[in-house]
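Students often ask why we bother predicting the structure of a whole assembly rather than each chain alone. The short answer is interfaces. A chain on its own may look different once its partners are present, and contacts between molecules only exist in the joint model. In this exercise we take two input lines together and write out one structure for the complete complex. Read the inputs first and try to guess which parts will touch.
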Amino acid sequence: ALAAPAIAQENPKFTWRLTSSFPKSLDTIYGAAETMAARVKEATGGNFEIQVFAAGEIVPGLQAVDAVSDGTVEMCHTASYYFWGKDATFQLGTATPFLMNSRMQNAWFIEGGGTDMLNEFYNTQGLQAYPCGNTGAQMGGWFRKEINTIEDLNGLKMRIGGFAGKILAKLGVAPQQIAGGDIYAALEKGTIDATEWVGPYDDQKLGFNKVAKYYYYPGWWEGGAALHAMTNLGKYNELPEHYKTILQDACYFGNASMQARYDMKNPAALKQLVADGAVLRPFNQDVLDACYAATQEVYAEVNAANPAFKKIYDSQLAYAKDAYLWQQLSEYTFDTYMMIQQRSGKL
Amino acid sequence: ALAAPAIAQENPKFTWRLTSSFPKSLDTIYGAAETMAARVKEATGGNFEIQVFAAGEIVPGLQAVDAVSDGTVEMCHTASYYFWGKDATFQLGTATPFLMNSRMQNAWFIEGGGTDMLNEFYNTQGLQAYPCGNTGAQMGGWFRKEINTIEDLNGLKMRIGGFAGKILAKLGVAPQQIAGGDIYAALEKGTIDATEWVGPYDDQKLGFNKVAKYYYYPGWWEGGAALHAMTNLGKYNELPEHYKTILQDACYFGNASMQARYDMKNPAALKQLVADGAVLRPFNQDVLDACYAATQEVYAEVNAANPAFKKIYDSQLAYAKDAYLWQQLSEYTFDTYMMIQQRSGKL
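Now the answer. The structure tokens for the assembled complex follow.
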């Protein structure tokens, strides 16, 4: 047999492993990594393969970033804010409470320098990351009793993640860290009074409506929640330039398609939840105002202590101010009119 | 010299021409085609080159689709609705009046079967198309006098595109077709009373605020306006499979980045327009209701006459009903609260 000609392969073989922070049962979030990986494989004629593993198959979900930093795997797909305890700056990649919605996040990522600013920080952690999915504005979660006043939050035992928990603690909430699979039992037994999760499609699978009927909105701590595909920085830099572009574009496709999937799946789930007894409740103005004030206190504290956080937060804040000024015209009045038509049965 | 080894090129050379329907001065829209083409080139190591030409360089902007269908060029970047006169179904690829916003369009395109349904139709025209840009909700345009009642629309000479013009004609508006560069003079002379264009960033360049101070919203005929990159179907099918994926992902990146660019640029332009004398005015409920009713009449007529239109319209309508039901919870209340904070100076 003849040796293969010694020319450089245009599309060299790479086989990478990606650890997801999510179980396969969260098919919408987990699926964004699968979508991204499939696009990369197709775009390279099968030569760049990213194998996707669910949380726990290689490392637990909350060790995803460490596993990428230390080279155990080449990639992860995660919510950056899980790692805010290492450095609060990780929070800003996923969701900045009371700030941008998902459309604003995308504008800031792509055209506002956001992806580059985040990568300046992620690079210090040995990571290079691109947006790869968004949930849109999340729901505020499930409560066993109504929240009518700020006092109703005092002493409330609520399953809620780190940074948002830190904010709510200022109002007397006792935040609890409980894994997804254990929340239902905790709510049923009364070990907790409330839980937040994601939105109708994901929440329905866990059946929270059976043990906590008040379904509050909005989830002001996640006006949008962005997922990221993170690569080990050294491994990323070893990729041929055209593979970097292919990977980025596949991430941004995953970014758009995950939001699209939630947007297609949430309406039917919402209708079913209401049919099954969920009672929809908006947080009232007093409650939101108190939460907003507590949030500003936390930002003041973290900004004072962490220059990397402050730099990125300031950029997001400046854009959000402009964005809400503009979007209250055509976008908001168009949506408002269409919602009126929908509610009155004219759509 | 030795002959090159006779192996198939992994990334074969393709050089395509793309005709844009837009001038370079509309840098945000025109730029989406440039962004897409740059990503394709980078992702193929320079081997798949799409050369972007402004409207008029090869064919006029409104002949873009014909030039692709007949193979004069391999691609165009256009607003499908420019060609609604050939077949009203072309309208549904860009903007369906009083229906989806841009986020809903993306959900419908990517996860609601929309891109496939549109391509079923586009294929009958010798085209294969992918979303490549969105303006978001457009403004309603510039008016020399206030529109306070439905009667104020009667006899109004307004520069407005085809399908939307057909709707407004039912209310007595006399729609005018005027090229972008000629609108200012027509408004100044009083040949027309009003014009719609896009939104603050594009409108500011044409200086409409100097000759028609009332700036109305929302542009209900374009709750979102999607651009498409369209390829000649035969040429598309000649591409290697991995080039098809690369092209699609680059289109979707262009899709996201164009919306992002408008979202970053519109706020500053809006502030400057208001500083320069533009007076913002929402269309009131009576006016919107009359326009909504006229729109439903047009849909009834077109649906009765055109089964291809009806099939796609029905799919969009079914999704829009669900989408507005769901988005009025967290998304809308979150945005509303943030807009209140912005207006009160607390953001």
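Check your guess against this: The radius of gyration of chain A is 21 Å.
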